[in-house]
Amino acid sequence: MNHNIDYAAPAELFPAPTHRRGQLSYHRFDSLAEAIRFASEELTPAQLAGAFIESEEERYDGTAIATLYKSQAFPLPRRDGA
Known about the structure:
The chain is an alpha+beta fold.
């Protein structure tokens, strides 16, 4: 994983493929930080496990998303206040 993360760069969230109606679909975000926060706070653990975010030609899987969200470098407030 790139250690020089640009949290302000635009990002795209690609959820795990599903065949159920009403499930989460592709989203664009103004920043990587917003995409990470959305994925971490709004997706179930199973959805997060199959999702990935792309930003600046980097791809972050569910494990990387969780790691970035918990990082001290993460620039946005977290739902749990951490």
